[in-house]
Amino acid sequence: MPVSKKMNKKEREEFVKKLADKKEAIIQKLSGFINESKEMESNVAQDLVDKAETSYTKEFLLSLSDAERSQLLLIDEAMKRLRHDGFGVCQMCGKDIGRKRIEAIPWTPLCIECQEKTEEEQKSQVS
């Protein structure tokens, strides 16, 4: 039985709040990255070293924001699962995601076993 079917209304609302708070924090952070990136563009780089440093910093900020965007999508998907009683069910194997895991990472779409398999596959593709 999915975690969401075992939850009472109060618990469900707590997860919705957790997810909404995390989403708001990410949006705030992304806004800061965008403003910082624009600031860098507006500052005229003096020499080649300054330009290289500005370019690296901007690229680093944008890569961080990609990860944040991915997390936003996971949060939105988790909120949909909460509304449709799929919350707490692994999207890969269909088994329940452990209660401790779902409380620690409420946006997770995978149980710990499937998450580990996915990470192993990604490591082997990179190697």
Please explain how this structure is put together.
- The structure is a single chain.
- By secondary structure, this protein is mainly α.
- It has one domain: DksA, coiled-coil domain (Four Helix Bundle (Hemerythrin (Met), subunit A), Up-down Bundle).
- It has 5 helices and no strands.
- Helix 2 runs antiparallel to helix 3.
- It is flat, with a radius of gyration of 19 Å.
- The mean pLDDT is 82.
Supply the number of structural domains. Answer: 1
Percent range for β-strand residues: under 5%
Helix content: over 70%
Computed Rg:
19 Å
Q: Name the shape in a single word.
A: flat
Topology:
Layout: H1 3-6, H2 9-42, H3 48-83, H4 99-104, H5 112-126
Q: Any key phrases for this structure?
A:
127 residues; single chain; 75% helix; Four Helix Bundle (Hemerythrin (Met), subunit A); flat; mainly alpha; 0% strand
Task: Quickly describe the structure.
The protein contains five helices and no strands. By secondary structure, it is mainly alpha-helical.
